[in-house]
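tl;dr need the bound structure. longer version: we got a ligand (zinc ion) that a collaborator sent over and nobodys looked at where it sits. i said id run it. heres the input, straight from their email, havent touched it
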Amino acid sequence: MARKLRGKGGEKAAERLREAGLRPTRQRLELAGLLFCDEDRHLSAESLHAEAQEAGIKVSLATVYNTLHQFTNAGLLRQVVVDAARSYFDTNIGDHQHFYCEGEGRLIDIPGDAIAVSGVPTPPRGTEIDRVDVVIRLRRA
Amino acid sequence: MARKLRGKGGEKAAERLREAGLRPTRQRLELAGLLFCDEDRHLSAESLHAEAQEAGIKVSLATVYNTLHQFTNAGLLRQVVVDAARSYFDTNIGDHQHFYCEGEGRLIDIPGDAIAVSGVPTPPRGTEIDRVDVVIRLRRA
DNA sequence: CAATAGATTAGAACAATTCTAAAGAAGATT
DNA sequence: AATCTTCTTTAGAATTGTTCTAATCTATTG
Ligand SMILES: [Mn+2]
Ligand SMILES: [Mn+2]
Ligand SMILES: [Zn+2]
Ligand SMILES: [Zn+2]
């Protein structure tokens, strides 16, 4: 089982985790496999857990939460707040913004160089800008 | 008790609720008194409930939630999503954006005519833009 | 191989929110 | 005013997303 994750891609993923100060455990490697497989993704803890189950990966929901937060702290993921009920994690950590389909709970990336925010006032003294988030909420036409 | 809310400001507030299709009940009038008293405000259900208690207003938390949602549906309030753990309601329903102090959970208005978002791509077919939210997250300098 | 530090897990706990169903109040109809 | 109907309030239970606990397990180091 662990064997299949060694060599080639597996070892590279393991190295990536080690560099982030995280032990390359079976669960982390398998979740990383789902997360960083191909395209950029937006997913909730519950949806990743469900997907892992379907893929036959044995991992608890607590570990999914732990892993998502650890990856986020390590800069491998970023968290997106668009819905008060659920948080989303984004595999695209580059500069970009989002469309959000309220109904379906779906996020769509907008490239950071496509969109611009101008006229931001000086932040209150004692604070500085951490980041600027733009969410474009969509409804059915 | 209800007497004190009649006449002058009380009747105007009652009329406003009736126009919104809401019965001007004691709880709604008293909460409206807190919400639309003077300046624009950003508050959570819990914080409004606490404030009502301190003011000696007898109202349940369930009613605070009901009222906030009813006022929001009636267009008297708007909901702001900046923190996955808590939702905020905003008495400023005009076009504007926000600074958000992560640490303190405080929202600060940015006038809508001060800030501009350009380069928004065409939304996916079958959808249209409901609104554009900008949240500028602040950290201690 | 130990030994050790760190990771995983089931299930309990939590916080924010919503639901339920019973009692109360507002507006309409006599 | 008395009544009727509809909407509102409420306490408490329930639900949801998430975090915590503490026992077990595993990756890494010597
Ligand atoms: Mn919740
Ligand atoms: Mn929550
Ligand atoms: Zn994204
Ligand atoms: Zn505001």
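gonna send this back to them w/ a short note. The helical segments of chain B are 9-19, 26-35, 45-54, 61-73.
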